[in-house]
Amino acid sequence: MSGYTESMRKLIEEFSKMPGIGPKTAERLALYILKVNKETAKALSDSILKIKEATRFCANCNNLSEAELCDICRDTRRDRSVICIVEDPGDIASIEKTGSFRGVYHVLLGTLSPLDGIGPEDLKINELIDRIKKGGVKEAIIATNPDTEGETTALYLTKLMKPLSVKVTKIASGVPMGSSLEYIDQASLTKAIEGRHQV
């Protein structure tokens, strides 16, 4: 990064620490910040500080919130008999964009990963079980990612919830809409065949 000032190199380095941001993208972002006026740069800086100061986890479901309870938990129109279990708050945003789910959520804040030293006690699993034991929950939808950690977590949750007289379901995985079978990877195609349902 020769040719840049020390402050520019530092900004590029900080952007590079973000997930999904490589050195080239970090450089472009830093150059963008350099080109915008002071008000725009200050607005970005203030937004970053505000999110750190104002945002916390919902006391009920662990979604992002600026109050004790998140907007979804406060919404009286939501169906509290159906809980969708996700790994991270970002997963809620993805599901909400579809407009197809009207239940409530529970965020685990991660997945089981023994190799990384992440066990059940490191996740919000006990809180989930407590919510179900309080009653009123008829269905728990497991919506973890279809990777090794997500599948391990899903199996663990299923074993814990089955004795609680709650219907345990898992979101479907497999062939994405609009794709051609010849281009689908073997694991996705296997999941699609295993998850087939009667029509």
From TrEMBL:
One of its GO terms (molecular function) is zinc ion binding. Keywords: DNA damage, DNA recombination, DNA repair, Metal-binding, Zinc, Zinc-finger. Residues 81-176 form the Toprim domain. GO terms for biological process: DNA recombination; DNA repair. A zinc finger (C4-type) spans 58-73. It comes from the Bacteria. Pfam families: RecR_C, RecR_HhH, RecR_ZnF, Toprim_4. Transmembrane segments: none annotated. Signal peptide: none annotated. May play a role in DNA repair. It seems to be involved in an RecBC-independent recombinational process of DNA repair. It may act with RecF and RecO. Belongs to the RecR family. PANTHER family: RECOMBINATION PROTEIN RECR. This is Recombination protein RecR.
